[in-house]
Amino acid sequence: MDFSNISRRRLLQGSAALTLGSALGARPAAAADTTIGFIYVGSRDDYGYNQAHAVAAAALKKMPGIKVIEEEKVPETDAVEKTMESMINLDGASLVFPTSFGYFSPHMVKMANKYPKVRFEHCGGLWTDKDPKNAGSYFGYIDEAQYISGIVAGYTSKSGKLGFVAAKPIPQVLRNINAFTLGAKLANPKATTQVIFTGDWSMPVKEAEATNSLIDQGVDVLTCHVDGPKTMAENAARRGAMVCGYHVNLSPLAPEAYLTGAEWNWEALYPKFLKMMASADGIPNFYRGGLQEEIVKVSPYGPKVSEQARKHADEVKATFLAKGLSIFKGPLLDNKGKTVITAGTERGQKDPELEKMDYLVEGVIGATS
Predict the structure, then answer these.
(1) Residue span of the signal peptide, if any (predicted)?
(2) How far apart are CA 244 and CA 222, in angstroms?
């Protein structure tokens, strides 16, 4: 029987799972010293959130003694529990990366309690002391890279009107919009960012409509925070606008229109996790970092980026790498004129106030609700 087109979660359903499980003896795979499982909510070649993880998984495959197994398009339901159990029981996975936000609770938490000898790592920063100790969360301060993208966008825009296609007005998304805008204002104090929220993480039709609407209103540089930026990038380039990417390097989609972008750097982090896992201390249950920690990075500059923009962006990037930099500091007003950070106050990346950000800064045209 050919199992090549059957998903892992289906192998644990019905007699097919029982037959295969008996044949393999439900033993851990012996093909490698360490078997690692990656689970994606969408396609692993989406030029977005899922591809960023898949690129890192591909890097791990090149390491000796490592076997990587993957499954894509797994819903944020009990389907992911079946996938995790398959990876553990049929493939012998000892480290599992359920990468999507909705996989964490109750699904990953349930599996972590059921399999205490397996390590579970979730992307999103949701872990607390109440959760299983063999589970953890990690995430990156990608607003640092968005801040640098904003600098480049501010120098490049001829109209001073920037556009942001966003999924939902949650704190992480608002941080990215605000950081991008504050970066742009370093280059052009009069720059504005118009934001359109689509309502969900992957809505290609609405993302295309939002992109076209922004360009129709005079926006000439666009970026986004959605799972798959491909729609925004291709539509913007086709309309003659410039593009700043998100998640991964989008330059292949818009070679002439691409300026730079905010990327995840999981391919640098995951090998570190393997070393931590082998050490006495293990992987921290809650792990965060930005440019300095190599968890995020900035895309290479495109051909339309001026020397002035490159120089300024490189200087700011160097500051982040050397000693860190507070993006959010007072006096800072929101886009309704209210002071949200008082003069003399800085909000560092670990400041809990940033974790519950609910405002858009002055210069952003849009609403959070």
Answers:
(1) 1-31
(2) 6
